[in-house]
Amino acid sequence: MIKISCAEILCVGTELLIGDIVNTNAAFISKRLASLGINQYYQACVGDNPERLKAAVKAALSRCDLLITSGGLGPTYDDLTKETIAEVLGRELVLDERSLSRIREFFRRRGATMTDNNQKQAMIPRGAIVFDNDWGTAPGFAVEDEELGKVVIMLPGPPRELEPMFDTYVMPYLRKFASEIIVSRNIMITGLGESAVEARLRPLMQAALNPTVAPYCKEGEVRLRVTAKAKTYEEGLRMCDEMVERIRATDVGQYIYGIDIDLEHAVVDTLRSLGLTLGTAESCTGGQIASRIVDVAGCSDVFVGSVVAYSNDVKVKLLGVSPDTLKKYGAVSEETAREMASGIVSRLGCDVGLATTGIAGPGGGTPEKPVGLVYVACAYRGNITVDRLTLSGTREHIRRLSSNRALKMALEVVKS
Amino acid sequence: MIKISCAEILCVGTELLIGDIVNTNAAFISKRLASLGINQYYQACVGDNPERLKAAVKAALSRCDLLITSGGLGPTYDDLTKETIAEVLGRELVLDERSLSRIREFFRRRGATMTDNNQKQAMIPRGAIVFDNDWGTAPGFAVEDEELGKVVIMLPGPPRELEPMFDTYVMPYLRKFASEIIVSRNIMITGLGESAVEARLRPLMQAALNPTVAPYCKEGEVRLRVTAKAKTYEEGLRMCDEMVERIRATDVGQYIYGIDIDLEHAVVDTLRSLGLTLGTAESCTGGQIASRIVDVAGCSDVFVGSVVAYSNDVKVKLLGVSPDTLKKYGAVSEETAREMASGIVSRLGCDVGLATTGIAGPGGGTPEKPVGLVYVACAYRGNITVDRLTLSGTREHIRRLSSNRALKMALEVVKS
What residues does B154 pair with on adjacent strands? Predict the structure, then answer.
């Protein structure tokens, strides 16, 4: 069998070179290759030009054992990845009957007419291993060249086709080449900063060689990534899970809100398991917390609704914030945040009420209440918890960090 | 002066090769180069490894006149783009006093301690043209090698530093090399599909060679991109604007909602100019319309607030939807959408009320009311407009298209 020690990704498409699309395929494939322990030293993009594509393919094959291309498998005359690479590898293109009937079926189901050039998509290099396209028309495929000792995989460009095809068909195919598997789990942490996590776990992290344990911080969220190298996926997963349990047993354990989960899913899952419902009262976040919760499919048994109270008038009318409070302390104050949180609970009859009020900027700041001052409150069982945040960055960033903090607060409050 | 006919981008960083980050820098820089009429045939990524970086730089310089790198200018030992490229070009690194004092000032302002390795960031290849970093520490710079006839520009990796540095300093620098400038304007259209736009403008589009006019469609939004080639930016802009006026004078004109603007900014600008206020009542969009409006800085004179009525109970309590309507027609119905829209207007006292109710999926669909069925309503001056949408795609996509439709409806309704 061909031995794969290093891979390259070559993305084909003029739209990449003029900046019309961001190359998410390279990051997607890279992450998967890393998980298989397959190294990558170069990546490249090239336009829909046969000469330059040929040069890029030859250069890549001189450096790596596995070349993965994306793009250029479409039905039009300027889609020529397959034709060009088949020529480099000296393979003719043959009709794959199975792919042809799948493409016919794709058009039939949509009531659309299949044109002649769609038939071109069913042509594959002789002897190639086909990856069915259950999400579009062009199949992907792998060509194994035993003589060169190289594997070339060609995949369609649209991420909505490439991504599920990769996970469904390419990953199982590639596993046979992987001598070791890399498995990661992310321990999600709330209520403890990155340096505090590091300080508490330093001896454990330094001693951990396989799996390794490393802290990451992004948009105010801290996670510990546990990464194991193993012979099989199952063994790697078991090694990771043992480490997760060891970390759960330390004094960081109480700050773990989930494994491999984002905040909005963790909130929905946790509240559902406790039989609790949630509502939000949002000023500076402007509906972002609600929208993130509604991103979670099936959230309706937990999430009841939200009042986005951008104006003071709405804070009074729909949340029952006292005009005196607004006058005395201002809209951006601990007192207003408290009344917004308790207001949403009483108005919606939900169990947990989250509230935000702050100055997201860039305008609207004063010396006493600068841009980035945000109050986040959570009402639950008659108690109200309030946090005062002093954030910096863009309007977008301040709003994102504020909704993160609110979601975390919901988790902390119901667990305490 | 060095003549630049083609460029390459080389992004440096192991994090790209393991898929930890998506390469947005390449798309950003590509778009700018395209606007300058500078062609690009290849792009590459390489890790923080001096030997492979050197090989990639040499390969790129053998093909192009302008090489732009991003990344590897940080303070740590594995940041070595500058050192490696200076070696390839045979230039020594010298201390740039101006950059050093700027870095000192950066730390002073933040009350942080500057470490010795930050001083490394002030070292630049002798004779390089410095691009100040007003957004971080590492300056960018251009090295002009008259002998080779090549220009190498090195920029810091973080997009929040690279992007403003490019627009502020690199674009003016590069304009001197551009023999022709490419200027684009985007005509934003609502209420007319891509094929209808094309049918009405086909003769004009086919005859238009400079500027060209091409339709684009993304997430249900249609735009016409007008692209002119000219000697100067001003001339290109004038050519574009003349074409924009010609298109405004056609029967597509009435569907144009703005030039180079997104929907949320167009809604805020339009409503502000008419002195109108806005509120939203959201079910399936779950606060997304509100959150998009709040993305617009200074929206508070237009946007008053929103009720995210995810449960029927909230639709009744906070929006005054009649329980009989919900019982008779269901939550996802034209009647409920109407009552939500009029409810938000009467409860918030705003001029324009937008409402959405639908089934975003993946669950919750029935044969009569399948996933993707969405009603969008807009109340204004006692009238209520309702659209029934039958969308397909993911939950995320259905929600996005629904909020697009709602924002467009607000524009259409207040303009009619």
Answer: B69, B141
